[in-house]
Design goal:
The protein is mainly alpha-helical. It has one domain. It contains 13 helices and three strands; from the N terminus they run αααβββαααααααααα. Helix 1 runs antiparallel to helix 2, helix 4 packs parallel to helix 6 and helix 5 runs antiparallel to helix 6. The longest helix is centred in the first third of the chain and has 35 residues. The radius of gyration is 20 Å and the shape is globular. The chain starts with a helix and ends with a helix. The relative contact order is 0.16.
């Protein structure tokens, strides 16, 4: 397929995922919304507002000159890092973590903006270091330094999941930029060792690992959530219980409309429904990386590759956690999980993918999608 067909396919995939998300969020959250607010559609309306804001910001991005977007990368990463510092001081503490700014009924998680701005910055930085990328101090180390600062600030919240995502995406971009394999291998070894130290140095992370290995050892404590997720998939079987028929959403499965919404999809739509979601994300990744390969300039190639990799990795981690293939981690399922700021930045990332696929030659919504 050419770039026009790939963009159109990507747009259809995106709206299919958004449609599934709207239905899943309403089904998974209606009982909790009714119990908490006295209205079954409260979470649904917030979710729709998040989609509307994301699409609006995405359209504004597509109408912005491409050169401006590249120039804004340096300022955005600085702004994002400042927000990460500020959230540690002024952020709202939830469950022992300071990750959010609260504005009335709405919240903002600075790490979500940081992931987006970091990919933009790394794309710009690596495109300027094409000739020296195989030199450690001149080409390989500068991207690591910026990612390291962002990762440390995330770990201070603490938020190991986001740190893992940005570290993996940085590794992906360095590999695409043709960094030396010895440097990449060394980075992987250091990352694995650091991850092991971080996991086993914190009691709650150790509990998650033990719950992952044997959730039935503590079925009412650390293993409760994943066991309830297993029950959801088991009840769903091949064809599911039908839309709205979930039993686990009746206050059995925690975070049913956010981190574990994939479990509700499995319970109500069965293996067929979950396979459809996996297929859509697989096609999203395939079309996105194909667009990156067809990009004519390094900045566009790295930007598309980084954003597609970021969204795909978050989706894979979320689905792996819900199915018990990874320890529990609070990452939403892109385009499907309930969320305001996460939906906004995910849709903005998609707009940047569409815009970058035009390689900055043409601006405007119509041209960015269809030309």
């Amino acid at each position: 397929m050419n770039t026009k067909q790939l963009r159109q396919s990507l747009l259809l995939i995106l709206f299919a995922l958004l449609g599934i998300g709207v239905i899943a969020v309403y089904s998974a959250s209606s009982m909790m919304s009714e119990f908490t607010y006295g209205a079954s559609t409260r979470f649904l309306w917030h979710h729709l507002v998040g989609i509307a804001l994301g699409l609006s910001v995405g359209v504004a991005c597509l109408l912005t000159p491409y050169t401006w977007i590249r120039k804004s990368a340096r300022w955005l990463i600085v702004f994002s890092l400042v927000l990460l510092v500020m959230v540690l001081i002024f952020g709202q503490e939830v469950g022992g973590s300071k990750r959010w700014f609260r504005f009335g009924r709405w919240s903002l998680q600075p790490s979500e903006l940081m992931q987006l701005s970091l990919v933009m910055y790394l794309a710009d930085l690596l495109s300027r270091k094409v000739g020296v990328i195989q030199e450690y101090w001149k080409g390989f180390f500068p991207p690591l330094a910026v990612t390291g600062v962002a990762g440390v600030l995330c770990l201070m919240q603490p938020d190991l999941g986001t740190a893992v995502v940005i570290g993996t995406v940085t590794l992906l971009l360095l590999a695409v930029a043709n960094a030396r394999w010895q440097h990449l291998l060394g980075l992987i070894v250091v990352g694995v060792i650091a991850g092991a130290v971080l996991i086993f140095s914190a009691e709650y992370r150790r509990r998650r690992i033990f719950a992952f290995l044997d959730p039935w050892e503590d079925p009412r404590g650390s293993g409760y959530q994943i066991i309830q997720s297993y029950c959801a998939f088991a009840l769903g079987g091949l064809t599911g219980l039908g839309l709205g028929g979930s039993l686990q959403k009746l206050f059995f499965l925690p975070s049913a409309h956010t981190d574990f919404i994939f479990s509700i999809v499995g319970e109500e739509l069965g293996l067929i429904g979950t396979a459809a979601v996996i297929l859509l994300f697989g096609l999203f990744m395939l079309c996105g990386f194909r667009l990156a390969m067809l990009a004519e300039d390094p900045f566009s190639k790295y930007l598309i590759c980084g954003l597609v990799g970021m969204l795909s990795l978050e989706a894979m981690i979320n689905m792996a956690v819900a199915t018990g293939m990874m320890p529990t981690k609070g990452l939403p399922l892109p385009f499907i999980s309930y969320g305001g700021s996460s939906m906004l930045f995910n849709l903005l990332a998609c707009a940047l993918i569409f815009h970058a696929s035009k390689n900055g030659k043409e601006d405007g919504l119509k041209r960015a999608l269809y030309h």
